[in-house]
Amino acid sequence: MSPAADPRPETTGAETPGAAPGPTTPILTVNRLSAKIAGQQVVEDVSFSVPAAGITALLGRNGVGKTSTIKAIIGLLDRSGAVTLDGERIDKDPTYRIIQRGVGYVPEDREVFSKLTVAENLRLAERDAAPRRQLVEELFPDLLARAGQMAGTLSGGQQQMVSLARALLNTNKVLLVDEPTKGLAPKIVGEVAETLAEAARTVPILLVEQNLQVVRQLAGDAVVLSGGRVVHTGPALEFLDDSALIQRHLGVSNDPHPGADQASHAAVKGAAQ
Amino acid sequence: MSTVILLLFTGLGLGALYFLVAAGLSLIYGLMGVLNFAHGAFLTLGAFTGWEIARRAGSDNWGIFLVSLLIGAAAGAAFAAFTEFVLIRRLYQRHIEQVLVTLGLSLATVALFDGIWGTDPVFIQGPAWFKDTTDILGARVPNDRFVCILAAVVVLLALVFFLKKTRYGMIIRAGVENRSMVTALGIDVRKAFTLVFTIGGAAAGLGGVLASHYFGYVSPMLGGSLLIFAFIVTVIGGLGSLTGAAIAAVAVAVLQQFANFYLGGTGDFVVVLALGVVLLVRPTGLLGRTA
Fold first, then answer.
1. Which pLDDT tens digit goes with each residue over B8-67?
2. What ipTM does the predicted assembly reach?
3. pLDDT tens per residue across span B208-260
4. Inside any domain, residue B78
5. Is B220 a domain residue?
6. Which of A76, A115, A120 sits opposite B184 (nearest CB)?
7. Among residues A221, A184, A230, which one has the least CA distance to residue A200?
8. What pLDDT does A245 receive?
9. Measured between CB atoms, which of A95, A99, A116 is closest to B174?
10. A65 in contact with B at a CB cutoff of 8 Å?
């Protein structure tokens, strides 16, 4: 066992370090969630909860079912199990009603409507009687300048801004954000991370993210999936600092960083050879 | 030269009818993935409704003709909305069942129309002006062609306005591109489904009344025979593309007319050949999605 591993019991719903102490009841609870795509089990008996403040990272190797879990939560996949949003069951609702209850969804690969203009993409997403157009304009001044442009002609980073803006226009109880930095240039990754940190001040976020630096920067808690199941939950830093856990569940060595346990790194490398 | 002009306008008139059927087919497929084989039934019902009005209220009268267009469109719209609400709504994502139920409905309605109006064509007359001709560069073009063309242009412009300028139009355009993301923005896309069916049915019903004047008769098979070419038009134009449907409707109908006249009645064959070529060279159709 590496010295970084914490002997404390693994916890869910722990308060996020750095953020103001949130309420103890989680905003989103997933209990024994399963989902299939074309008969194949992609999410199996997954249970975890998302605290009512801060950012919770959903981690795991490629193809482990992170995106499917998010899609199952909002009913984009046929699912079984219980999902509770702010104390109310949502697992029998159709997708549009789950969203209307206060879920903001930022899908993997942005999924902007390429043949609609930027302005139309945003207008389509407006649910509230008084959508927060001003906030979005302040966060993404670039989009204002490109309002009349077809969203399909934007760069990947700009499309991600549209996708984030669509979720931030409305008042949400939780945001589900799926790989927002995927395929983006490092500078844009930083901007996206800043936007998420800013958003997390007012709304809890469940974040799927492969970039562990971004996870380290943003996430309070981490939920780790493997083989469609939850294999670890706990504070994000605790997981990120544990090379053995990272190697086992993500299949990567964590990047060297201040405070990393060099000995455990060497041990992992040695074991891998 | 006069023959070319005459063929051109006859083709444009026929293209207008194809477009009125194909517009709905294309939007319905684009948004919902439903291949609607019952679309011809909407047209036939519109045609018979228009004929009933002309028969009872007097045929040589512009006012009554316009009323018959409106009621024909309303009949098509009501039938289409009913079809979506009662049959298709239960079968989303079940494409085989959709084909079976719409195909079954189209066969059943032919039998139903047979039972009500008989199997023989019923002949229809419109305002006398329809049968007059207008001289264009020496060609004597029957006036009913112009009525069809004008109606199709008005429908095209109205649809474009609706799709570009209204919220439901925006939802439909977005839904054609990515339906699940529309629902993931909190929008009940099923309302758009019913709306698209209703609009498609209205265009088909209108096309039915116009087709009855273009051909001079109504028969229970009218819708089915136009539907085949409308499907070809929809595929050539690109499924889900309204502009593509408009361009392809004109191209197919004009090609058909010219081939019929100059290549010994091979119009239908040439159209199917064109379909094959488009599918080989550009499988998504002229203006279809690339995804």
1. 999 999 999 999 999 999 999 988 889 999 999 999 999 999 999 999 988 788 999 999
2. 0.81
3. 999 999 999 999 999 999 999 999 999 999 988 899 999 999 999 999 999 99
4. yes
5. yes
6. A76
7. A221
8. 87
9. A116
10. no
Q: Categorize the per-residue pLDDT at B289 as very low, low, confident or very high, splitting at 50, 70 and 90.
A: low
DSSP letters spanning chain B: -HHHHHHHHHHHHHHHHHHHHHHHHHHHHHHH----TTHHHHHHHHHHHHHHHHHHH-SS-HHHHHHHHHHHHHHHHHHHHHHHHHTGGGGTT-HHHHHHHHHHHHHHHHHHHHHHH-SSPEE----GGGGSEEEETTEEEETHHHHHHHHHHHHHHHHHHHHHHSHHHHHHHHHHH-HHHHHTTT--HHHHHHHHHHHHHHHHHHHHHHHHHHHSEE-TTHHHHHHHHHHHHHHHH-TT-HHHHHHHHHHHHHHHHHHHHHTTS-HHHHHHHHHHHHHHH-TT-TT----
Are A96 and B183 in contact (CB < 8 Å)?
A: yes
Closest-CA distance, A37 to chain B, in angstroms, reads: 14
Domain assignment present for residue A14? The answer is: no
A133 lies within 8 A of chain B by CB: no
For A39, the domain range is 28-240
Nearest CA in chain B to A121: B174
- Position A85 in a domain: yes
Residue A97 within a domain: yes
pLDDT band at residue B92 using 50, 70 and 90 as cut-offs: confident
Nearest-neighbour CA in chain B from A97: distance (Å): 6
Is B76 inside a domain boundary? yes
